[in-house]
Amino acid sequence: MTRQTVWEKLQKCSEDGEVPSVDTFSNYCGISKASAQNIFNSFVKEGRLMKLNEQYYFNDLNPEESSNFDFFKIVSGLIGAILIIVSIHFTFEFNKLSLPSVWAFLLSVAVVLFMSIAFVIRSRTQSVIKRQLIVFLWFLGICYSVFTAVSGQFNYLRKYVSQDDSKKIVKLSKVYNEELDFLKNKQNELSHWRIQEKLYNDNPDLKLENPGTWKQIVKGNNELISIENQILELNKTIVSNIEKESFENRSVFDWIYETLGISENVIQFIMILFPALFIDLSSTMLMDFAFGRKE
Q: Which pTM value belongs to this model?
């Protein structure tokens, strides 16, 4: 048998990633115990196995791969740490809505850290029941973390859109504010003519007794009506310009809706869900690669 064949037999003979005993391996391969012992020792020299207290263990890496994988593990651990911090931030923003800040932060750190290193813990646990429990708890944690990440991003998006719309309205209305204020002041100054008109209409004799005053009342009311019409037109202009500005500043969500017929809310949910899944699933995978045992 070639050394690679022997190595493959050793891996097949192992259970749950544990190196079999010398006796078990010698029986499995049909060789003497001394030959099996020599094979184990040779694999230790090659770096494929390590020996501690008369017990053999699989090395996570082959010697020729170790330098490259050390670099990738460092990078993976760094990226995983960044994603963990981001995930903690989103989870904390959600938790602090219902909990005091200190407890919200502690809960966020506990959930996200456990979720991120769950498979590292699993790789170091031998009990099948405990391993299954860890996977179940990881699933609960990642569902919660993804939900809080989606919620946090949605709140930021809603806040940004709301502020952006308010800025547009203020910007567009500011141009007309001075003119609108002037017209309204003028309207208040002329409003007394409408009261006089009603008084004279209720008492026709006053028109005959005070024809000059009646002419002033009619003129004042005509000017008041003109001012009110200008105010009405100015308000229409403001609304029209706001609608025009909103159309000209359409978002990518509007464009996708017109192209694919998918509603803006669905598109926003999908776009928010993608980074949430990426953050939590990637942090778990990267931390497992950086610190987990090879199985």
A: 0.46
